[in-house]
Cytochrome c oxidase subunit 2
Amino acid sequence: MSKIRGRSQIGALLAGAALLLTAGPAGAGWGALNMPEGVTPISGEVYNLHMLILWICVAIGIVVFGTMIYSIIRFRKRDGAEAAQFHESTTVEIIWTIIPFLILVGMAIPATGTLITMENTEDPEMTVKVTGYQWNWHYKYMGEQVSFYSNLATPVDQIQGQAAKNENYLLEVDRRLVVPTDRKIRFLITSADVIHSWWVPDLGMKKDAIPGFVNEVWTKIEEPGVYRGQCTELCGRGHGFMPVVVEAKAPEAYREWLQKQKQSAQASNGNAGKVAQADK
C-alpha cells in the first residue's frame, strides 16, 4: 500500500513539473521574464544560445532532482531500504566525470561561435563614435561631419514625483541616435570621465565605455523602429539619467535625415562665423 502511495506522489510531482514547463512559454508573463529576442542577427543568436543553455539546465535539474525525489520516496528507511555504497567505485567516477564534460563541451561550442561573431567588427559600412559623459552620450558619425549630444528628456516634475510618469519614463532623450537598417554599423565606444556602459537589449549590444580605451561593437538592424536602453555601469549620482535611444530608419529615410543634419551643422557654423566677425 505504501509503495502505491509513493508512486502516486512521484507521478503527481512529475506531472506538476511538466505542467509548469509547458504552461510557462504560453503564459502572459513569460515575455516579461525572459530576455528579448531582439531585431538583429546577433541578438537572435544570443537569444537562441540563452534558450539552449536554459533548457539544458532545466533537463539537468529534472534528472537530478527527479532522481533525488524518487530515491527519497522509493527507498525510505521506514520501509526497510538499505543505502547503497559507491565508495571508490571507478565506474561511478568515470560516469560523473565524462557526463559533465560532454555537457560543458555541448555548451561551449555554440557559445564560442556566438562570441566570435559578436567580436567580428571587420568591413563596417558606417562607423559611429559613442562617448559617455556624466551624464549624457555624445555621438559622432565618422566621416560625415555630424555629431551631437543626447540628453535625458524626461521632465523634472516626473522625476520629482509631481507629475504622472509616462511609458518611457527615464528612457527618452532630446536627440536620438539615428542609423540605417540593413547596414553593418560599427560603434567605437569610449568615455571622457568615468566608466559607463552602452546597452541596447533589442540590438544585443552592451559594451563598457572606459576612459583612455576604445571598445568596438557592431550591429545590423533588420527592422525600422525605436530601440531603448540605458547606461548599465554605476557611474555616479546621475547614472539612472543616461538613456540610450536608437532610431533605425530605412536607408533612403536615413540619407534624408543625414543630409538635413549636415545642412543644419553648416548653417550653425556660418552663424558662429558671423558672430565672431561682429565681435571683432
